[in-house]
Structure prediction request, 89 residues.
Amino acid sequence: MASNNGRHGQNSHRLHPDVLGGKPCIAGTRIRVQDIYQWHELQGKSPDEIVSSFPQLTMADVYAPLAYFWDIARKYSIRYDGRMSRSKS
Prediction:
């Protein structure tokens, strides 16, 4: 199960222009929101498997980026299959 690394209850993803080219990433790491999405949705890894592979992450660190990604995708009708594309309406 996930360890608590002191970020519990905080916004777990950050935008910072000097880290990973300004792409959203997990606070205190170089793991992008996009990475979490790819591991979970495209590679079929469970949140437990992701946390086991990256013990610096908590379950909240995994779920928050997924919720963030799906909120943005829904808002802008974006489909992600390894690259971003807008759905045609």
